[in-house]
Amino acid sequence: MQRQGIISVCGLLRCGWKGALVRQSREAHTDMFRLCVVGSGGVGKSSLTIRYLKNEFTEYYDPTLEETYRKEIEYNGKLYDVEIVDTAGQEEFSSFRDSSVATGDAFLVLFAINSTSSWHELKDLRSKIIQDRQLSSTIPMVLVANKLDLDGEREVNKDEVLEYCNSAEVNIPLIETSAKTGLNVEESFQLMMQQIQRIQPALLERTVPKNHANKPQKKDNCVIL
């Protein structure tokens, strides 16, 4: 039986998403928001991104590359243009990541449950995002604990992660995923959209494609996880 990962947020709905995928250059676009997938090297950023975009599992990656994609996402009956940035993770390529931190509108912040060092680096990275942007509660973030398929090799204590996420200073949602099996991958991006809607709804208002601006909302068939 497939393992259910932790989702530390109430009322998460699983709704239908669909969209067209286009790989983009690194040029900024004013008609969409930039969703950055960040974390240290080897935590599964590329695997998570490709699993979401193509429903494929990619185990091998080039840490020197920063890939940017455009995806038209349907969420709550409307279409949104989203730029998804799969950032380079290795320390020697941190300049790419720093650029994404400076220009990103929202962040999926990853660590691997079988790597204590990636957990410590995640906390440092979150602090860097907050410090560099001089913002805290107005930056949509979701913390992603990846590689749940390696739960038998877990090094990072669940309770410690939950305590961190639920602390008054941090207060961001947590979701456990497996890019390898696909568990909670789509849900992690949906949770990110919910965070954006809650914290920075103006981002969504500016990213509705013009040809869909007046599209009536349709009723979604959702179930509570």
UniProtKB/TrEMBL annotation:
<dbReference type="InterPro" id="IPR018247">
    <property type="entry name" value="EF_Hand_1_Ca_BS"/>
</dbReference>
<dbReference type="GO" id="GO:0005525">
    <property type="term" value="F:GTP binding"/>
</dbReference>
<keyword id="KW-0547">Nucleotide-binding</keyword>
<dbReference type="GO" id="GO:0003924">
    <property type="term" value="F:GTPase activity"/>
</dbReference>
<keyword id="KW-0342">GTP-binding</keyword>
<dbReference type="InterPro" id="IPR001806">
    <property type="entry name" value="Small_GTPase"/>
</dbReference>
<dbReference type="GO" id="GO:0016020">
    <property type="term" value="C:membrane"/>
</dbReference>
<dbReference type="InterPro" id="IPR005225">
    <property type="entry name" value="Small_GTP-bd"/>
</dbReference>
<dbReference type="InterPro" id="IPR027417">
    <property type="entry name" value="P-loop_NTPase"/>
</dbReference>
<dbReference type="GO" id="GO:0007165">
    <property type="term" value="P:signal transduction"/>
</dbReference>
<protein>
    <submittedName>
        <fullName>Ras-like protein rasC</fullName>
    </submittedName>
</protein>
<dbReference type="Pfam" id="PF00071">
    <property type="entry name" value="Ras"/>
</dbReference>
<dbReference type="InterPro" id="IPR020849">
    <property type="entry name" value="Small_GTPase_Ras-type"/>
</dbReference>
